[in-house]
Design brief:
Two copies of one chain form a homodimer. Chain A is α+β, with helices and mostly antiparallel strands. Helices cover 29% and strands 24% of the residues of chain A. Chain A contains eight helices and 14 strands. In chain A, the strands form three sheets. In chain A, strands 9-11-8-12-10-13-14 form a seven-stranded mixed sheet, with helices on both faces. A four-stranded mixed sheet of chain A has the order 2-7-5-6, with helices on one face. The two termini of chain A are 33 Å apart. Chains A and B meet through helix 1, strand 1, strand 2, helix 2 and strand 5 of A and helix 1, strand 1, strand 2, helix 2 and strand 5 of B. Strand 1 (43-47) of chain A pairs antiparallel with strand 2 (50-59) of chain B, so a sheet runs across the interface.
Chain lengths: 340, 340
């Protein structure tokens, strides 16, 4: 059988020779570095004294290939961004694959190469991993878990945390919202929108470090993935004694995302992003944060969308395009399954 | 609907209100600690200067409940043991769940509680996590990924590594072999063996630390999971310029495992364990290691099974019960799928 037609078999995950060959010919080759090459059950890794950031995410996105990325790229971006929003510098990544028997080997190779390329771009090393294969019909093509370890800056700069948030602070979004969710839904259901719908899937650690390099005060950062901007803002007001007011007119929105959301009845505020941040910055620093973001490839469409307010604590209100006020709720029920 | 009949819905994984409620009522309640309670995208964790151990495993075992444990307990043991074999002290665990829509909530609760109890027993804290739900038929009940971070002892004691291995070193196994794999196969296929077949699933970090406390020289440790003892010994000889000789008569084996393996044509050397270690110790220290193991609840049946030899480098040979010699190969092909 040619390499092209080769498929993943149960034996590729059973701990025997075929698994060793797969690890050797693909994983170790793509990810190879001084830590992974130890090939021990756990990687031994240098860390600076103090604190580390540690996070994990499993990715079950459907389809596994989509405009703007694939599950491999996403698995790096999601975990890198969870580290980045704390201000941490991503260092190490674990990669654990659950593969459905019958997955074309060529698909696995594309995914692994994409994962490896994105990790290199983000400056994070894949240092440990795991590969399981389940019988046909017992998972859906491939699921990927990544866990990430990051270090904090030696100058102490990081996201300051909930306690630092004050009334008057500005809320920024680093670009257009809802792109990922709408792109995935479009790819999955084949709505054939003609305008380009691309996932925004990207690693944002570089952009965050640029802000910290400039010494800007960042109260809080979060990547609005599942549940979108609405979920992040509502979580935020649940942790602080303040409310939030945002302006619909200030929300960056791609025309095609707007059109698709309107047609299908989605609120872009509740649709997932994979390459955007919500940032709370002091009133004083917000314009500088905005200007720094606009100078970064992933922040060109950044916008100050609202403020932390003393009125209506615990609630997120939006001034609509028509000048009315609307309460932005926590998204409830089934949003879009399997968008990450 | 009563709590008892409640099932997992897609909405439990969609980032909205139902997910928040599930996290609050189950995950944060069970796992709660000062780090997890930060409820940030990544946990901020103190680490000592120097090195950390970092590892990951995904668990796709079928059935999810089995004699001797369940997938939750296993997900702790597997990752804790991967840290333990390097000599590291497990500190932090991430837990990422992929749940099939329709899983009874009561099953999830049992699994999460079991995971939490085993983590507490092993002295490791669940500090970060993720929950995904996929449509019915797109995974099999529940898959769990855990990643673990450990610290090394301040006295510098740890597994010495491949380079320390010398001809004459002794090879020990910490107890009966093949229990986990045969117990899972029995539970899955309902062979109705009357003699008890229990998984050996256990966290071995305490036993390893006991050996290190006693200052014993441990060249190498590995938990023989997928591929069993045969896979570990063959990997070992592939990394060192020596061979291995083991004695069949020295292999600890439960009568029921022996019977089932014989009946079904399995070689217990290739069957998975989840609560055993292969240890290479110096000739001088091996009897002390054996005696220390026998004093531990998970090492009662420990045995010196063989030696590192200068003859036949790269090969593992076994003196059989009848006095013949047999080459122990890397297990090839499909062994037992989904035993971890």
């Amino acid at each position: 059988m040619s390499q092209k037609e080769e498929k993943i078999l149960l034996a590729h995950g059973s701990g025997g020779l075929m698994m060793q060959n797969l690890l050797g010919s693909l994983m170790f080759k793509e990810f190879g570095n001084e830590y992974l090459d130890q090939q021990t059950d756990s990687a031994t890794l240098p860390v600076p004294q103090g604190e580390i950031a540690f996070t994990t995410d499993s990715f079950v996105i459907d389809p596994i290939f989509f405009p703007g990325g694939n599950i491999g790229k996403l698995a790096v971006c999601g975990t890198v961004n969870d580290l980045a929003v704390s201000g941490a510098i991503p260092l190490y990544l674990s990669v654990s694959l659950i593969i459905e028997e019958g997955l074309p080997m060529a698909d696995l190779e594309t995914i692994v190469k994409s994962l490896s390329a994105e990790a290199k771009k983000a400056g994070v090393k894949v240092v440990t991993g795991d590969t399981k294969v389940v019988n046909r019909g017992k998972c859906d093509k491939i699921f990927i878990n990544t866990a990430g370890v990051g270090q904090f800056r030696t100058d102490g700069r990081r996201a300051e945390g909930y306690n630092s948030i004050k009334a008057g602070d500005c809320i920024l979004v680093t670009g257009t919202i809802g792109d990922h969710g709408m792109a995935i839904l479009n790819a999955r259901e084949s709505f054939h929108f003609k305008s380009p719908l691309l996932s925004d899937c990207a690693c944002l650690n570089g952009m965050v470090q640029q802000l910290l390099d400039e010494g800007l005060q960042l109260r809080f950062m979060r990547d609005p993935t599942r549940g979108g901007v609405a979920a992040v803002l509502n979580e935020l007001v649940s942790k602080v004694p303040f409310g939030i007011e945002i302006e619909e007119s200030a929300l960056p929105l791609n025309a095609s995302v707007k059109a698709m959301a309107e047609l299908l009845g989605f609120d872009p505020l509740s649709v997932a992003n994979e390459g955007k941040l919500i940032i709370v910055a002091s009133e004083e620093d917000a314009p500088k944060v905005l200007s720094s973001l606009k100078n970064h490839e992933f922040g060109k469409d950044a916008s100050i969308i609202g403020r932390i307010v003393e009125t209506h604590p615990g609630k997120v209100a939006m001034t609509t395009l028509t000048g009315g006020k609307r309460l932005i709720d926590v998204p409830a029920g089934e949003l879009l399954p399997r968008i990450c």
